[in-house]
Give the backbone structure.
Amino acid sequence: MDSEEFQRLKAALPKLPKLNWGIFKIIFLVLVALVGILTSVYTISAESVGVVMRFGKFSSTSDPGLRMKLPFFIDQIEEVPVRRQLKQEFGFGTRDATNNYQYASVNVQESEKSMVTGDSNVALVEWVVQYHIKDAYSFLFKVRNPDETLRDASESIMREVVGDRTVDEVITFGRQEIEIDAKTKLQVLVDKYEMGLGIDLIQLKSVNAPREVQASFNEVESAKQELEQAKNVATGQKLSALKAAQGKADKLVLEAEGYATQRINEAEGDVARFNAVFEEYLKAPEVTRQRLYLEALGETIPNLGRKIILDDEAQQLLPFLQIDPGSKNFNTQRAPKNFNTQRATENFNTGRTTRQ
């Protein structure tokens, strides 16, 4: 195309208005300022800290809240949830989890939970690891892909701990010991790798025998439970019998102590009573002797049955004193005026009585 044709084509085109480059400059500067403002302000949530990287290299950390940084992507911020409780699941998975490394695929889950015990048996172990990020710098820069590394380390430790125990320990009574041992060993390994993680808890969710032998294991466990139940019943009966025997023994001891105390008190009372009588006897021996004699007669004669006491000087047959208060024909008659009580007493002493 020669210059004449170019001139004709140029004349045929409509004339464009002249551009005002000053306006474009202003718009450009406004856009630059807006981008600079937007890229210099950031916010860190309450459960996280911000790791500031300047030109891709670690610079500093920032606390939660509204913060400032160098604009135009000179400073880049990586938010690390150091105050959030994180967990990983092995052998199973909870759907809709926010952590992409919380559980593995279904095929991997089957291989994760299948473990060999120390007695060459197979156990299906499902567990959970709860952890938190305690050092954001180590978590981001010391280990590549720390979440995946933690999964591998946790599975390795669990296989080691389970392999040191029998299948009975793993399935029944050794679960708590396995959890504590695995947590301790995993924390040591994490610290050795400088992953910046703290292991809070390892919990066994489900431990079972393989499906092929599950029924046999259930029967064994049922037999063990019956054995324990029988032992508990026997122990209860033993304790009950011991308590009953101890109670009977305590009762006998208390009764013996009570009887001993009673006999002591009675003996002390007899001694005191004898001393009192003896003191009275010393004051008036004859009167006291007579009183004691009459009291003894009053206690003895009623037990001798029917009896007749005669007076030697009695002239008639009728004067007699019937001493039988227990008989049905009990009748008290008055003795004659010439009845001598003292002589009758003496006659009684010499045995001059007549029984009917």
Observations:
- DSSP finds ten helices and twelve strands in the chain.
- Confidence is low (pLDDT under 50) at residues 327-339, 351-356.
- The first strand starts at residue 41 and ends at 44.
